[in-house]
């Protein structure tokens, strides 16, 4: 029997996969451990998914690591997450370079603790030349924040006389988001059984295929990722058209 990986059509891969890595706390709880243990264990899943995405030939992988709303968690959990981030970026840097993976970040990085921000920016600078895949960490990220910021930037351009209101369109708007130059995610995965977007890539996910799994993030392994890709490949993406029109396009290009 074919394993999930062998069933994947490499010519029909999403170019960008976005993941909401959820369920670390609940995973730890089932083991009678503190929530932070779940976050630490989740790093293994990050490593596996990054490796497998690069191996398959996916070009962009965006991971939701910390939302703006996550500041409301207990102080100890927040600081543990920030420390974990610094340690992980430092530890994984050589393997990112070995695998030719470029690190990038989206979100309001100015509000991160200095040490976290510095390590992150160093990681980004040191992997800048890599070309195989871009790993984007969404950190202190909020989609509504991003949309408001884009609106302010566009308003500034209008005030300065560099942009006419009638020339504001979807492309201009996209170019003012933190994901400028990154294609929209074709596939968005959320683990842990929650069926919500939690302020993630709201503009960019307008036509994303959503995939929800009850697997908790620290249990998420390569095969789960393959399953998500396979599910994506079985879907018909209509973009407002009818099935018949899509059939027509295929046979009569
Ligand atoms: C996701 O796991 C990690 C972050 C949000 C940082 P959670 O910490 O949200 O885990 P649950 O949802 O409470 O189980
Ligand atoms: C979303 O998870 C944010 C990240 C995965 C970083 P949450 O666990 O914070 O989301 P909600 O609050 O349950 O929607
Ligand atoms: Mg959660």
Structural write-up:
This protein is of the alpha/beta class and 253 residues long. It has one domain (12-235): Undecaprenyl pyrophosphate synthetase (3-Layer(aba) Sandwich), CATH 3.40.1180. The chain is 45% helix and 14% strand. The chain has helices at residues 4-7, 24-30, 35-56, 75-98, 114-126, 143-159, 170-175, 222-233, 243-251; strands spanning 16-20, 60-67, 101-106, 133-141, 187-190, 209-212. A six-stranded parallel β-sheet has the order 3-4-2-1-5-6, sandwiched between helices. Helix 2 (24-30) packs across helix 3, helix 3 packs parallel to helix 4 and helix 4 runs parallel beside helix 5 (114-126). The longest helix has 24 residues, at 75-98. It is globular and about 55 Å long. The two termini are 35 Å apart. The model has no long low-confidence stretch (mean pLDDT 96). Bound molecules: 3-methylbut-3-enyl trihydrogen diphosphate (2 copies) and magnesium ion (MG). The site of one 3-methylbut-3-enyl trihydrogen diphosphate has 11 residues, from helix 2. One 3-methylbut-3-enyl trihydrogen diphosphate binds next to strand 2.
Q: Indicate the low-confidence ranges by residue numbers.
A: none
Helix content: 40-55%
Task: Tell me the structural class.
Answer: alpha/beta
| CATH homologous superfamily grouping | Decaprenyl diphosphate synthase-like
**Main beta-sheet annotation:** 6 strands, parallel
DSSP summary, beta strand count: 6
Radius of gyration: 19 Å
Based on Cα principal axes, name the global outline.
Answer: globular
What multimeric state do the chains show? Answer: single chain
The helix tally amounts to 9
Give the distinct bound molecules.
Answer: 3-methylbut-3-enyl trihydrogen diphosphate, magnesium ion
Element pattern in H and E: HEHHEHEHEHHEEHH
CATH fold call: Undecaprenyl pyrophosphate synthetase
Architecture in CATH? Answer: 3-Layer(aba) Sandwich
């Amino acid at each position: 029997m074919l394993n999930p990986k062998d069933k994947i059509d490499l010519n029909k891969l999403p170019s960008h996969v976005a993941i909401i890595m959820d369920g670390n706390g609940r995973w730890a709880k089932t083991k009678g451990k503190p929530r932070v243990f779940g976050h630490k264990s989740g790093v293994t899943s990050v490593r596996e998914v990054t490796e497998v995405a690069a191996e398959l030939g996916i070009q962009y992988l965006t991971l939701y690591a910390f939302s703006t709303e996550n500041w409301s968690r207990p102080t100890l959990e927040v600081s543990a997450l920030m420390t974990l981030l610094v340690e992980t970026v430092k530890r994984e840097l050589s393997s990112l370079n070995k695998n030719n993976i470029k690190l990038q970040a989206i979100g309001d990085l100015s509000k991160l603790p200095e040490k976290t921000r510095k390590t992150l920016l160093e990681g980004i600078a040191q992997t800048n030349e890599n070309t195989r895949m871009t790993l984007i960490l969404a950190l202190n990220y909020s989609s509504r924040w991003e949309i408001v910021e884009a609106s302010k930037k566009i308003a500034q351009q209008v005030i300065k006389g560099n942009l006419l209101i009638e020339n504001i369109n979807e492309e201009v708007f996209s170019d003012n988001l933190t994901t400028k130059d990154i294609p929209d995610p074709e596939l968005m995965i959320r683990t842990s059984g929650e069926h919500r977007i939690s302020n993630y890539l709201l503009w960019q996910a307008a036509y994303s295929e959503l995939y929800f799994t009850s697997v908790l993030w620290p249990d998420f392994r390569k095969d789960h990722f393959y399953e998500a890709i396979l599910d994506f490949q079985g879907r018909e993406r209509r973009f407002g058209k009818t099935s018949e029109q899509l059939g027509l396009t295929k046979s009569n290009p």
